[in-house]
Amino acid sequence: MITQSCKDSLGMISVNDFRGLEQIPSVMNELGVFSCSEVGDEHGQGPVASKQRRIIVANQLPIRGYRNEETKDWCFEFDKDSLVLQLKDGFPGNTEVWYVGMLKVDVEKEDQEEVAQLMFHKFRCVPVFLTVDQKNKYYHGFCKHYLWPLFHYMLPLSPSHGGVRFDKSLWEGYIVANQLFVNKVVEIYKPDEDSVWVHDYHLMVLPSILRRRYTRVQLGFFLHGPFPSSEIFRTIPVREQILRSLLNCDLIGFQTFDYARHFMSCCSRLLGIDYQCKRGYIGLDYFGKTINIKILPVGIHMGQLESDLNMEQTATLAKQLKEKFKGKVVMVGVDDLDMFKGISLKFSAMGRLLEMHPELIGSVVLVQIANPARSQGKDVQEVRFETSVIAQQINRKYGNEGYEPIVFINDPLSALEKAAYYAISECCVVNAVRDGMNLVSYKYTVCRQGSPVLDKALGINESDQRKSFLILSEFIGCSPSLSGAYRVNPWDVNAVADAMYVGIHMKDEEKHLRHEKHYNYISSHDVAFWARSFDQDLERACKEHYLKRYYNVGFGLNFRVAAVGKNFRMLTVETIVAAYNSTNSRLILLDYDGTMLPKSAVDKTPRNEVISILNCLCSDPKNTVFIVSGRGRDPLSKWFSPCEKLGISAEHGYFTRWTRDSRWETCSVAVGCDWKKTVEPVMEVYTATTDGSFIEHKESAIVWHYQDADPDFGSCQAKELLDHLESVLTNEPVVVKRGRQIVEVKPQGVSKGIVVEDLISTLRRNGKSPDFLFCIGDDRSDEDMFESIARLLDSPSLPPIAEVFACTVGHKPSKAKYYLDDTPAVIELLQGLATASAGPKVTHTLEEDV
Questions:
Q1: What is the DSSP letter of 372?
Q2: Could you tell me if 24 and 13 are in contact, meaning their C-beta atoms sit under 8 angstroms apart?
């Protein structure tokens, strides 16, 4: 039985203790050390002073627990090795941190309420309890045997290889578990005060569920493992639901740029969302919100590791190990026992080293420490068997009495024991074939830096140069950060063996320089730095939460939030018709593609309904109606030939006519087309080298389209084409513009915005100064119209326009003040205006065309 004094020394609290004690500290100043100054009142209400709050949501709580076999009481303590506990050091000093997650021990149902109360009041933890079936589906099923292998580039090509295949029941179990996590967050969440930080792939659909509950929640997500390339990720049947859920965060963090790039590539290929870099930050524009991307590898807790190194127990262990391996060069590896850590490849490299350099037999040792596997399954058993067999073979071949080239420690070791092994090892080998971050190399480097207590035990003088040597796989997240490491391809056994040989014989001076470089980086980029940087970026990403209005779009996990300006609102038929009826000189400007006709329509000819509405509007003597389009004048003339009084502005205003029978006018900035002789050959080169691209020839412009090309390659080629054309057209009176999946060259001074200014100016000269202006469009070129309208309204030198309705199609950021949802809504509104002009006789509907 554990005595009370023992519990006190361990910082443990039992359920029984909780019943009797009035005051037990809730948080810690230093890891593992309780602070009475931060204790709440006896009712567990927390400190009186107002504090900032962070809610950390992770698969597991930072709590260790066990059940006393004699008293049957549960005993708990903070797990000082837990990353989610350590990141607290990066938050401001007055921050109150709450944790939501599962306990690492299974608690019987009848004890769950009592344990939950203890967790809540004394640890600021909210446990999520899952049934055995829920946990098997969520964690052991979908997370560890489907997502985890897939994110590490192992496809389930057969039922016996590469994890389990997609199973809808496991996916549903994953969603259910994420919902249960959200329910626990909701229990403690304070809207407008708390920020929520979600961790890792176990909870990738949580953001959608939580965002639906709280539109303005400050929500960050960090993926600790790798994010696979789009070729791998696209094999997931629920890929879009996962992406859209993650995009409901304000900030998404990754360990390396490669992982972030893979995520952004998936967003581009699967959702058509492109990223942009602005002032050092990367963002994705998603339904009016900027989803920020953060790239920063996790660090270690320097204070905790340095404290371990200063303990007499660590020094004693290190001294014993140094004596045990006296006269030998020790290489160390510490890995989880799973298929991706490359332990068997590391052992094979050790065998190859001794085969190529037999003089090293007896003088070099590889100590491999295997951490317990985090999941259950056949794959773990296979890895354990394979590594053991290879180690035994090499030891039999090259070992002798008193010497084993591979010391395979397959039992759990404490942090102090691992630190002792790190401290006496000349080289650390991290040989994973795929891993998210892997902090073993960080811990090794800090341990090699030593401490006063450790140095004394090992006989190291303070003036002695510290040295270390790292052999790192190219496929782990920490590799880019440690530039002094010897990088290897873990699959190339000979190369790893050569790296081991280099590490054994490298001069101490060079080892010192490499060590110093690594230690300076690791000590300045610790876990507190990482958490502080993420927290600050999350706060920056959420600054505009209350400057916009939000609308819920979609169902289930396809749910997302559309953000618009506070003054941005839906245009109703009643609103515009009231203004329409009270005015006498009206200008109506209509975009065509995407506004009056769906973008997806194959037949671009306007429906009879549209022609009928346009004719009705044009027949009203108070109206001037124009189609303002980027299309050429020939197709527009053909399509709208039934509309005698309709004005058309083609190719963004390069050509304009006021009625069907009037002549086409060319804009005043019209120039010759000699520049096309320069542009066409350049675009043809890029078309020939970019599969899926094509050239569109207009009378006034040339457009290179790449919407059917590979998204990444097309975007890269578009950038190159833009730079190329700008360089060869420097002295030509044209502009080169990059739009959505296009690069366009057109004369300077041609835009839809200038069309608006010219039409209003002409009407005013003719004594028909408009008192009603309705302008609607759906894409970037239409924003030029909205911008010109805003500029005209702000000009004090121009006559005011009484009623102005600038309207975009769709929920998205716009310079317009109004929006309509889609093309049917546009037609409905125009029908309302036509009815107001002609009375109820205009009743031709879409159904009549069917």
A1: P
A2: yes
